[in-house]
Amino acid sequence: MTRIRRGYIARRRRTKIRLFASSFRGAHSRLTRTIIQQKIRALISAHRDRDRQKRNFRRLWITRINAVIRENGVSHSYSKLINNLYKRQLLLNRKILAQIAILNKNCLYMISNDILK
Predict the structure, then answer these.
(1) Which H or E run contains 90?
(2) CATH number for the domain that contains residue 49
(3) What is the largest CA-CA distance in the chain?
(4) Which domain holds residue 46?
């Protein structure tokens, strides 16, 4: 029988996988089986940590708002502020409130005092 030359498809697939893993260290960037395993792990971690990142940022925003509100000296807390915002139907999310708290504390004080009245 004559020799059959293999096509380029498998080689193209492997080079595509190697490009993904080019920044990995050691065998994780050289050996095809190891690259495939590491790629799966990397994609799983990326998917999981996208949700975790959202969670962490929300915690950070809540902490910043709470710190500025309690700094005012008035016996407010974060939960009372958010509750009053919902009662007044003011649509300010936690990210915007945290930015206001950092950049302009007086503005946040005005918002919280205006809500209480």
Answers:
(1) none
(2) 1.10.1900.20
(3) 93
(4) 8-116
